[in-house]
Amino acid sequence: MITTNRFKKVNAKVAALVVAGMTWVMGVPTFAATDLELPVEHATLTVAPIVPPPIVRDHPAKVIVTLETIEKVGRLSDGVEYTFWTFGGQVPGNFIRIREGDHVEFNLNNHPSSKMPHNIDLHAVTGPGGGATSSFTAPGHSSRFSFKALNPGLYVYHCATAPVGMHIANGMYGLILVEPEEGLPPVDKEYYIMQSEFYTKGSYGEEGLQPFDMAKALSEIPDYVVFNGAVGAIAGDNAMRADVGESVRIFVGNGGPNLVSSFHVIGEIFDKVYVEGGDMVNHHVQSTLIPAGGSAVVEFLVDVPGTFILVDHSIFRAFNKGALGMLKIDGDEDLAVYSGKQEDSVYLPEGGGIQSIAERGSVSVKAKSKEERILFGERTYAQNCMACHQSSGQGIPGAFPPLAGSDYLLSSPNRSIDVLLHGLSGEIVVGGQSYNGVMPAVQLSDESIANVLTYVLNSWGNNGGVILPEQVIERRTH
Ligand SMILES: [Cu+2]
């Protein structure tokens, strides 16, 4: 009984404090006094795929966010226009970045040219309607409400004015990132992508200004599924970019209104996925599910150059409805990671069966002549060396030394046997060029090592010679 009373007393005290700390503006309560002591800053808002810079402060702030709803005609695809309802003038809406514990003063301005009232439901808000009930704003009006960012994470925001589905289908969604107090680990590049669908009177690609189609939206059969509000919004010249060796973080949202995204980057593996935009991290993920009204943060290191295609792996959406983006990676090839096409040869299933027996046999079958040794060695080379040293032994300048005309190789047979047996690292000079890479030790039999080196010695203008398995055995036990 006593404890209950005490508990009540404490509660009453807290309540009294809060009431005393409030200031009243025209009968509307604003923040408690403690919030007035916070430093004030205005949020930097960005247009997709740009993300505002990371937050460096180590304390909460009062952050003022001002977002404008505006209805405007824009490009949905080449020759196809649509009347988008937007947060900030484009789809998706501006990216908002705040920190856990921040007090946010949110101002929603509805442009006077709007035909509709709008509001905002931020999934980062703890409170009725996520802010929707306090932000209902008629055209030419402005609303303000405040909230405290209690939970870190990547959250969707969207309009929640009736008919809600239609406001979302017309483009009213975006992302708000609430960074955890300790911040996110630094990366080299950050991007913002949001998937969503459009339901139009005309089918995919039909030209002209396309009105919204309620029947298609109800049956959840969209004509367009896109990243960042339009077909090709992040493709071609608008592709996202990074350099080889950089770490990339993509904040991915799904505005829906109906579909779940199977987000995938062709030719990449997500090293990390912050599942559903929370703080649970999954590793080595190929495709991640992003629910309508949900998000994910994906991270990966880019190891090789090229154009990587981002898709919703519900694949007809990607190639037939627009859900396709691009990430262009510039930099040097890493042929150990990805070789490119190494061979295009005739495929004979029947003859091939016999060939592979002969080939398998050749490992144990001893070469009976120098010619046979070279022939067997050529196969071993194609399978074990070509990825790095290239088809004509020319190597790759700065990365893989040449075996054609290599003074290093030709000057000492024993040394080249050792390279294959034990691998090689540290600086070496080949043909006056210095190399400082790592050559892994190869797992080959004595016979195969003799064969491949004999092949190398007798190819690409090298000066001939034979390496015998006995020499390899001698070096192995050396
Ligand atoms: Cu709206």
UniProtKB/TrEMBL annotation:
Keywords, ordered alphabetically: Copper, Heme, Iron, Metal-binding, Oxidoreductase, Repeat
EC number: 1.7.2.1
InterPro entries: Cu-oxidase-like_N (IPR011707), Cupredoxin (IPR008972), Cyt_c-like_dom (IPR009056), Cyt_c-like_dom_sf (IPR036909), Cytochrome_c-type_DH (IPR051459), NO2-reductase_Cu (IPR001287)
Top-level taxon: Bacteria
Pfam families: Cu-oxidase_3, Cytochrom_C
One GO MF term: electron transfer activity
Matches recorded under PANTHER family: ALCOHOL DEHYDROGENASE CYTOCHROME C SUBUNIT, BLL4482 PROTEIN-RELATED
Family the entry assigns: Belongs to the multicopper oxidase family.
NCBIfam families listed in its UniProt record: Cu_nitrite_red (TIGR02376)
UniProt-recorded name of the protein: Copper-containing nitrite reductase
Organism taxonomic ancestry: Bacteria, Pseudomonadati, Pseudomonadota, Gammaproteobacteria, Cellvibrionales
Protein encoded by which gene: nirK
